[in-house]
Design a protein that fits this description.
Shape: elongated
Helix content: 25-40%
Number of domains: 1
CATH architecture: Roll
Oligomer: single chain
CATH class: Alpha Beta
Strand content: 35-45%
Number of helices: 2
Strand order of the largest sheet: 2-4-5-6-3
CATH superfamily: Hotdog Thioesterase
Number of strands: 7
Largest sheet: 5 strands, antiparallel
């Protein structure tokens, strides 16, 4: 009887920090949405890479919510982890918070669910280890991601 390798969600955690600089902002002094997406993609890719231990590509963004603006001079805190695994794909959740460095006040800036596919040395999809959720939050995220995965497969098949 063979055992399937399962990786703890905690092994896929990635944390990034970024300062919001003038070139990152619009005329209102708010962080550009495109810059938010760029940073989320990088952070999420690190989580996917940690699980797959192979190159990964972004397959889709299932959901991206902009919740509150980050301002020029804010410090961004990005956190990501793998929520769910398919055969070759992984759903990664990403959360961005912005911290005002003068006050220490932290805002939940954006949240996204992104799907990545692992690639082999011929740039073809390759299998990924299963994820093992352990905490209540990880189990909840796993179950919610499983539903999104099923709905997305149905949507693509239609």
């Amino acid at each position: 009887m063979s055992t399937v390798k399962k990786v703890s969600v905690s092994k896929t955690h990635a944390i990034m920090n970024q300062l919001v600089l003038p070139n990152d902002t619009n005329t209102l002094g708010n962080l550009h949405g495109g810059r938010v997406m760029y940073l989320m993609d990088i952070c999420a890719a690190m989580s996917a890479y940690r699980l797959s231990r192979s190159p990964v590509v972004t397959a889709s963004v299932d959901r991206l919510d902009f919740l509150s603006p980050a301002q020029l001079g804010d410090m961004l805190i990005l956190r990501s982890s793998v929520n769910y695994t398919g055969k070759t794909s992984m759903e990664v959740g990403v959360r961005i918070e912005s911290e005002n460095p003068q006050t220490g006040y932290i805002n939940h800036t954006a949240t996204a669910y992104m799907t990545f596919v692992a690639l082999d040395d011929r740039n073809k999809p390759t299998s990924v280890p299963l994820i093992r959720p352990e905490t209540e939050d990880e189990i909840r995220r796993f179950e919610e991601a499983k539903i999104r995965h099923k709905l997305n497969k149905q949507r693509i098949a239609d």
